[in-house]
Amino acid sequence: MWGGRFAGGPSAIMREINASIPFDKALWRHDIAGSRAHVAMLGAQGIVSGEDARAIDEGLQTIAAEYERNGVPEDWDLEDIHMTVEARLTELIGPVAGRLHTARSRNDQVATDFVLWVRDACIRAENALKGLMQALLARAEEHAGSVMPGFTHLQTAQPVTLGHHLMAYFEMFTRDRSRFADARDRMALCPLGSAALAGTGFPIDRQATASALGFDGPTRNSLDTVSDRDFALEFLHAASTCAIHLSRLAEEMVLWASQPFGFVRLPDTLSTGSSIMPQKKNPDAAELVRGHAGRIIGCATSLMITMKGLPLAYSKDMQDDKPPVFEAAGLLDLSLAAMTGMIADSTFQTPRMRAAAEAGFATATDLADWLVREAGIPFREAHHITGAAVKLAEERGLALDALPLDELKAIDDRINARVFDALSVDASVAARSSYGGTAPDQVRARVAEGRKMLGTG
Ligand code: ARG
Fold first, then answer.
1. N or C: which end of the chain has fewer CB within 10 A?
2. Is 153 designated active site?
3. Which of 291, 270, 290, 281 is nearest to 343 (CA)?
4. pTM of the model
């Protein structure tokens, strides 16, 4: 394809280090779409004859059908997907195939293919996130009133509702979804026509190719265009943040499924057994989602480091942009699917969660708040009195609301029988009805808003 000025072919090692076809064949659909838009424009502009443009377009369609059926052949001598398609086109229609690359370089070609691919990956992630968010809404509604311990420092803090806890993840995934959509907004300009780095002298119509490929218009600076991989970096950033959220959810599933917690039974379909311990049901899918997050973040780091030292415009280092993006996208697709199944099909052990909330003095804040409200005691003093009550309960091995009234009165005689209304975990969550709080009514309101936002209710 470029042998004119060379005396001999590349060494075996050159062929191997140079070949991107093993991975960039994933771009074949976008490569052929880009070439069809390009040749239609060349024909319309009279840069190639209408007859040649038609022959080329038919050849490209034949190749697409072949690849669809049999996959893309991997010949290292052909380097990459662009050369692979062109070589096959030459076999099919002869030397006229050589007119396709008029007013184009692989540099603007690969930038176009890749941004099209990343745009699709964003749309995939947005759709998968929507599915996960719908699953969260359904389970949150079901468990709007299910009480569990809320934690800080992984120590029992205050009772919360399981619905509220699940809706916390809904918020994270809402932000993730908007990050992918927002990144996609900046993928609206088409690289094709920037050529190698400086543009071209042929009378091309960049608006035409941009529109044909679903872009708003052409990019504005050819040097920037062929050396820009911000779109891939933005995708990897959005994927990394999303993976962090998936990993935290996965970590909680692992923790909750453990015997000491016993908060959840994971679906059999997303668990595995042990070859030696017959009683085991392991949360492998959740663990792998947690693991994959590390790999996705590694992919983002990899491309940032590839890009950070490159002078303008294209350098071959940039061929290394694709493996981390493809890897991260594949891992993210899988992780989203696994967590959607886990949320939809897990069995939450609500009696166990409630017992844990009742066991950990989780309503101590409610006692302090009651002393402030009912007895007019300053909060700091109320905090101290409550501390003494917790100490006593701990010594006696009782829950706070099981302490006899006279013993509470002995700590502070402003306490009366009405305090027991405030000390149940249900009273505690119901009281936290400030906007965005854990009260069941608040959770139901947020679920309704979430449905509206997703256009599903
Ligand atoms: N396979 C190359 C890549 O992915 C295509 C661009 C090659 N351009 C070049 N000037 N050698 O980056």
1. C
2. yes
3. 270
4. 0.95
Tokens of 340: 């959607």
Which residue(s) pair with 152 in the sheet?
155
Q: Report the alpha-carbon distance of residue 457 to residue 115 in Å, rounded.
A: 34
Is residue 360 within 8 Å of 149, Cβ to Cβ?
yes
Amino acid in position 387:
G
E strand or H helix that includes residue 265: strand 264-265
Annotation marks residue 237 as catalytic = no
- Partnered with residue 348 across adjacent β-strands are 264
Dist CA 129 CA 132 (whole Å): 5
Closest atom, ligand 1, to C-alpha of 114: 4
DSSP H or E run through 217: strand 217-218
* Peptide bond between residue 388 and the one before it cis (omega within 30 degrees of 0): no
- In Å, how far are 121, 122, 170, 333, 348 from 131, measured between CA atoms? 15, 14, 11, 12, 20
Residue from 80, 101, 114, 225 to probe ligand 1 pocket by mutation (most atoms less than 8 Å from CB)? 80
Using a 10 angstrom Cβ sphere, with 0-12 exposed, 13-18 middle and 19 or more buried, the burial of residue 335 is: buried
Give the ranges where 192-321 is alpha helix by DSSP (H): 206-212, 222-227, 230-257, 284-307
C-alpha 79 to ligand 1 mean position (Å)? 9
Tokens of 86: 């062109």
Tokens of 14: 């050159």
CB neighbour burial string for 25-37, b if at least 16 within 10 angstroms, e if fewer: bbbbebbbbbbbb
* Backbone phi and psi for residue 62, each to the nearest 5 degrees, phi listed first: -60, -45
Count CB neighbours of 153 within 10 A. 6
* Residues constituting the chain: 457
**Pairing between β-strand 155-161 and β-strand 147-152 as defined by DSSP bridges:** antiparallel
Strand bridging mode 147-152 / 217-218: unpaired
Torsion, Cα 126 129 133 139, to 10 degrees, reads 160
From the candidates 153, 164, 165, 433, give the one annotated as an active-site residue.
153
Measuring from each residue's beta carbon to the nearest atom of ligand 1, which residues come in under 6 Å? Answer: 20, 24, 80, 106-107, 110, 314, 316, 318-319
Beta strands 217-218 and 264-265, pairing class: unpaired
The rounded average pLDDT for each run of 10 residues, N- to C-terminus, in the chain (457 residues) is: 81 96 98 98 98 98 98 96 98 98 98 98 98 98 98 96 98 98 98 98 98 98 98 98 98 97 95 85 96 98 98 98 98 98 98 94 92 95 96 92 93 93 93 97 98 92
Nearest to 115 by CA among 16, 262, 213, 243: 213
